[in-house]
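Q: Is it fine to ask for two folds in a single conversation?
A: Yes, each is treated on its own. Send the first.
Q: Here.
A: Result:
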Amino acid sequence: MAILSGSKKPETLISSTNVNGSSISCGGILKAQPYGQIFTSPDYPKNYPSGVECVWKIDADPGQLISLD
């Protein structure tokens, strides 16, 4: 989960992905906005199947604070 700082109440953004059988595909680029946001992975809080690698890039402007839990 990533919590991005800002001066407004955060809006919830839940990422989506395609799921086919027992495989799961995830990852991508998340663009930080000037207001607070919460990002969660697909099917959070469920775990991914074993052997799945999920890579997210958070793109933020200089001076923005990103907090990961």
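Q: Second one now.
A: Result:
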Amino acid sequence: MPSQTEQGLLLIAVNVLMLLLILGLLRLNARFSKFSLFDTANAFTLFWICLILGAQFSFSGSLTAMTLVLLYVIPILFNLIQLLIRLLVINQAHTNIQNGEHFNLSRISNITTLLFILCLIANLSYIYTQYYQKGIAVVALEQIRSSNFRNDTEEPNFFYNLFGRIYLLLIPWFYYLYSQKYIPLSRLVLLVSISILLSGIHLTRAPILIVGITILLCNSYFLKETLAKKANAALVILTLLLFTSLTLIIDAGSVESNPFIDTAKLYLFGGIAAFQKLVQGFQIKDALFPNHLYSLDFVYYIEKKLGFLQQYPSYIRPYVDFGGKSTNVYTFLDSFYIDWGLLGVLLGSSVLFAVISLVSQLAKSTGKMLFFQLHLLCFSNLMMCFMNNEFIRISFYIMVCEAFACYYLFTKQPATF
């Protein structure tokens, strides 16, 4: 049994060697495409490294050397897959989105306005049925995060599922209209601001982060450099304020009240530490459903809605304790590991990275808004890797279908509305 000092030196060696290997892959990829933080593989790689290092500093001794190697292999796979796609599949020509296609701007403006109104109606209806009818006062918002309230809360209806989050798909079209000088900056700011507010109605942090990342990318793609920097600075400040406020509300409604920094550490890095417990044998699979494949959550959801299933395991995982802390998130790798173990982690993440890389490269090489929208969806949802696998949820596939539907509506002939 190695001593604590030997274990520490081994972890340092693993970190250094794996970081050097990843740096080499990033440099190799940069030879084919200029390094950018808005490249999906680059952004994921740097963020994932921060999560790994953050977990080790925040929760000392939370990772073994073998798990550390596995976690570092994930971004290595992503970079290798992206490199392979760039070499064998995709034309490297870059087409600007604003020049890639030509649309009937009046048609886009009319349809996006109609869809945004439907989105507002869906969200206002949800707020009325879930909050107002239950008599939840603004001064007692923490009640909404309580277990009793969550148990009493009804599942969003079909209308909300269809239109409630469509603002995510409309945001890039609003930016496109602005870039074509069809709408003023004031209207763009208003629509984007409302979208940010809509992302917080569930009092959960993930939607705020997703819409923030989407807007960040749109600012960088569609706005002039000086304006983009100012817009992104304002966006970061606003997102941090919303994130902090929501974290304080959630913490106020929890059984234990923790310092904000500790809460933030647990939120960001707790999933990595919890994944170690999963690898060590902590069971989170529901014993009542031994043959259930968690990676196909969206398939089971459809079957349940069609009446073929009465119930299936909740996507909410059981809590695990580590270092005096507890969490019920295990990173985006949890479903792959539950279903197929270490092989599932490698194969599942490889398939996911291949699809994401393909979509990202198509967005760059074709300049088509459809691929750009899919790229935004993949990028923003992948950045939730520290807590959830959004790609197994039915909500992600609803958004993909709606992206195709919107694109069809905007390009359908005749080009009049």
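Q: Anything structural to flag on that second result?
A: Two points. The first strand starts at residue 320 and ends at 322. The chain has two domains: 4-88, 98-259+353-386+393-411.
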